[in-house]
Amino acid sequence: MTRDRSALDDLLAAAGDDAYCIEAGSADSNQLYLSGFDAPDPFFTAYTGDELAVLVSGLEYGRARKESHADTVARLSSYDYATRAADEGRATALAGVYADFLADLGVESTLVPERFPVGVADGLRDHGVAVDVDRDGVVETLRATKTDEEADAVRRATAANEAAMAAAEDLIADAGVAADGTLLLADDAGEATLTSERVKEAIEVTLLRHGCALDETIVACGADAADPHDRGSGPLAAGEPIIVDIFPREKASKYHSDMTRTFSKGAPSDTVAEWFDLTHEALDAALDAVEPGATGADVHAAACEVYEDAGHPTLRADPDTETGFIHSTGHGVGLDVHEQPGLNPRGGELEAGQVITVEPGLYDPEVGGVRIEDIVIVTEDGYENLTGDYPVELVVE
Amino acid sequence: MTRDRSALDDLLAAAGDDAYCIEAGSADSNQLYLSGFDAPDPFFTAYTGDELAVLVSGLEYGRARKESHADTVARLSSYDYATRAADEGRATALAGVYADFLADLGVESTLVPERFPVGVADGLRDHGVAVDVDRDGVVETLRATKTDEEADAVRRATAANEAAMAAAEDLIADAGVAADGTLLLADDAGEATLTSERVKEAIEVTLLRHGCALDETIVACGADAADPHDRGSGPLAAGEPIIVDIFPREKASKYHSDMTRTFSKGAPSDTVAEWFDLTHEALDAALDAVEPGATGADVHAAACEVYEDAGHPTLRADPDTETGFIHSTGHGVGLDVHEQPGLNPRGGELEAGQVITVEPGLYDPEVGGVRIEDIVIVTEDGYENLTGDYPVELVVE
């Protein structure tokens, strides 16, 4: 994919550093984005403004030359790594090799991301390379605004996500209800219990068949749903809110999507119904605030106001609250499922091309949880809701 | 799971530091292991020898108290994080909050892992906390030796892995062969091509149904197989080596397994058949070398000798070679699919309770690739081969 590195060039010029360096495997999305190279073990990337250079093991050398964005690909053996590692140990040898690699690139000072490993940073400093920390997260900022190609990858992951959500909704809608309220798998002769695990399996198999991988999926019912990060487990129950939050990654592109619906098999309590309507209202209010120039803080405030006006606690009104609206309103989505920009009290100005989720919710262990999450692309005149066609309906049966 | 932290206590005493600290999300396996807390976003863990303390966001506070190993759970809001972040920015505020948290624990100096973020390390140093890098990877060393409970998790992931391998093998064995040698999906009325992607889907659906997640799977045929990290794509062909390398993670425990077989639908070339027999011989030679007190270097040497005696290049004979035996002989498996100990020229003494793969292979773009990988537990008197019952047979039909 095309990379616009002009913000990085500007930052290097302003900071007076010779390069921006990353040492990580491609599970670090800054590394994957800057190098364009997908490899599991840590490797070294240096961007000098003129040149993008990567230093990899012999095992990755051939593939790095074919697949990475680098202008120059070097390998550890060119810096006598094996002998040095045998003499000095792995970590010391690597720092020396990286220092020599930077010397060959004419780099005497470098910016690095906050999460650059301190072992490597201190090792480079010991070799006389100045290492400054980029406190502004320039690569995260670059990543936040998507090219059309990146946005298309998110669209494909979203289509897979909607198919998986429909599979989950169908299982819940078609379920039977036992005398004690437990949901029963519709097509099972033996009346097996419908569990969170069974719904997740349906979701995840659907995602795989649509070319997506996944880390975790949330199908949380009742008290589980009151904790926004609880993945859920065990039997599902009628009349209880069931939060289904799915965040797959398209395997080919590595880009994510993210959406949430809350379902109740049959009528829930009045409180849950009221929470759902209020959360739908908060979603609409937050979406209405999305446009270029508005800040993430503005969007977050719009959701908080709906909840606060109805008398619910929010984190901004009470930083210690454990019930009510206890998370931010949303986040960027891309190579990471949580990335820039944030829709929170510190969220900066939104820009066209950013992909964000909007996901208000209410939580209380006495009641359960309700969350609704759409994923949208910020456009020149507002936003395009990628999950806007998926119904927002609590009761399914 | 029970954690034996005595090696960590010894290290702290020897280094004269007050604590061992990690700042990362649970995708960092050292964090997951030390804190026992599974949360996506970075949080702070401090182990003082007397006390394990974690500092988390309000969103994770309730779950951390229930699920983590920590004696003490604190939250960011107790250190006025929101106000400080609004005033100073996120990174500076976090460093200040972490410094105050450490002051409350009586910590003036800390050891950190090599991959601790330099932004946090430099921030703590600015607040007068001494930060020393643990160059020996003490948490990785602790993780290398498994408890019975950890070993059982690997056994369950291995059982899932064998089921997935059988699904892949069946698809290849049952495939038809088109006139041009392309494999055809056996049960498909329209004679669809059997692709790498289709075999991966069968593998991954099987893994999901056995409670495992997965990041990637390798099904690589022909020239793809000549690159050990190529995941493979496109049509599979008869008479070509197809490397199937599967490395799932059990969802509940987060522990991995890892195994590889190489299959050929029908007879391959004499060269491939000879490579396979030689690789089987290298596997047996390496396995024979596995016992407590032997080093990872010894095991690696045993595999290298088989290949070198037969005239094949190895990395130890030629660090620049791009064909032959171009990776290490194996690695530890646990919370990470690649962890300590390494079976490579620098590999130290093996200990009972370690879980390792043994995976010799040969690669050449002109021929393809062959790899056979078993996963074993080092025992008091040798090893237990967890995948030893899965046949090692090249030709399937």
Automatic annotation (TrEMBL), chains A, B:
Domain (Peptidase M24): residue spans on this chain: 153-380
Coiled coil: none
Residues of the Creatinase N-terminal domain: 6-144
GO MF annotations in UniProt: hydrolase activity; metal ion binding
Keyword list, A-Z: Hydrolase, Metal-binding
InterPro entries per the UniProt record, alphabetical: Creatinase/aminopeptidase-like, Creatinase_N, Pept_M24, Peptidase_M24B, Peptidase_M24B_aminopep-P_CS
Domain of life: Archaea
Family: Belongs to the peptidase M24B family.
Designated name of the protein: M24 family metallopeptidase
